[in-house]
Amino acid sequence: MSTTAQIGVSGLAVMGRNLARNFARNGYAVALHNRTPARTRELVAEFGQEGTFVPAESAEDFVAALERPRRLVIMVKAGDPTDAVIREFAPLLDTGDVIIDGGNAHLADTRRREQELRAQGIHFVGTGISGGEEGALHGPSIMPGGSAESYASLGPMLEKIAAKAADGAPCVTHVGADGAGHFVKMVHNGIEYADMQLIGEAYQLLRDVAGYPPKEIAGIFRAWNTGRLDSYLIEITAEVLSHVDAATGRPFVDVVADRAEQKGTGRWTVQLALELGVPVSGIAEAVFARSLSGHTALREASRGLAGPTPRALGDAEAARFADRVEQALYASKIVSYAQGFHELAAGSAEYDWRLDLGAIAAIWRGGCIIRAAFLDRIRAAYDNRPDLPSLLSDDEFAEEIAEAQDDWRAVLVGATEQGVPAPGFAAALAHYDALRAERLPAALTQGQRDFFGAHTYRRTDREGTFHTLWGGDRSEVEA
Ligand code: 6PG
């Protein structure tokens, strides 16, 4: 077989197939490979006219079809299937070749694979790709890690197939070495979970407290989407809420089982945050809310527990409440993003990735699931001040929260009084209030730890580590 393809894609399920088509539509010759060759043939039969495809039935033919340095994208399931594909291809590759893993892999796996392949002279580029099937085809947001050298060969192609932000900038950048790409994608998904949870809570409050039916709530989200909340997730929320189930004529949202599933990237975001010591309570609440929703038997057993039954508000009050929910949603969203960016900064420090937080916000402006007008403002905040301690320290965001906070608190009072759960809103407000508190009860925690375990404490008025002789005369000794 002649060496003709500039890039190869192995793993032609929907994401891989659409990515391959995206490369081809952008003028690249694309080698194709799939474990079951029927899929490869199908792609060529259905979309062959879109560009130049070089189908290969064996790993050897696939690799032989690629120009050097070879660039091959693997789009298979995270975990063992990825290792299996790497084991198949690696012996066929040469120094300088590049394997790009476009799945949602865990950064620890990516770091391990990168190290193993580096020893063989092969670049391994763990790459976050966001935007679902449509994004893969029309332009995703792309978050490649790996070596800077691999980006030199790969970057221009990724820039071509990536989504373009409103200012025309491609939504891709070399985010950092080894596992940085998959780490950034993981945090993107954690933020996605939080965003979706907050939107879900806003919906439930509008439904149960304000008393609006789904169709009207869809209209409210549509209106919000013309303002500062303008985002893909708000847009599709309006679509989902206005959809009517053909079989029953009822709102679609009322016939779908209320048990949210998850593939795991949100959970990983929280697990890693726990290890890094970063308080991502909004993302954690989103993960827990999904898992709580799935505990059907526990929910069934708990339905009779005491609590208020929400009473819908009158029309004028409902409209006022809806405005307040918008404020609460916006303020909670800022806090969630602040938490996600905090985790990005902590991961960057831990792994020495030197992530450019402004550049990450910039490549999330288009193509990805959390794309939003808002991200341009985050980019600007980091561009203005690259050492920004938190998004909450940015003057503009701080001012917006200051304006929103009365409504944010009122919504939570209303939710609590009416017994409507709003864990994401509440976690975000608690995080905000904890950060701005002069004193936290952590001093008491330290006292308790010292009491039962002689774990020592520090003082506010002088340096050193101290212990109180709790079982004795309660005098203090320097530890
Ligand atoms: C994206 C999405 C994508 C996917 C997740 C959703 O950025 O394109 O985040 O990665 O939709 O798998 O994950 P859950 O199944 O965990 O909700």
From TrEMBL:
It catalyses: 6-phospho-D-gluconate + NADP(+) = D-ribulose 5-phosphate + CO2 + NADPH. The keyword Membrane does not apply. InterPro entries: 6-PGluconate_DH-like_C_sf, 6PGD_dom2, 6PGDH_C, 6PGDH_Gnd/GntZ, 6PGDH_NADP-bd, 6PGdom_BS, NAD(P)-bd_dom_sf, Pgluconate_DH. The active site is at K185 (proton acceptor), E192 (proton donor). Residues 181-471 form the 6-phosphogluconate dehydrogenase C-terminal domain. Belongs to the 6-phosphogluconate dehydrogenase family. Homodimer. This is 6-phosphogluconate dehydrogenase, decarboxylating. It comes from Saccharopolyspora aridisoli. The lineage of its organism: Bacteria, Bacillati, Actinomycetota, Actinomycetes, Pseudonocardiales.
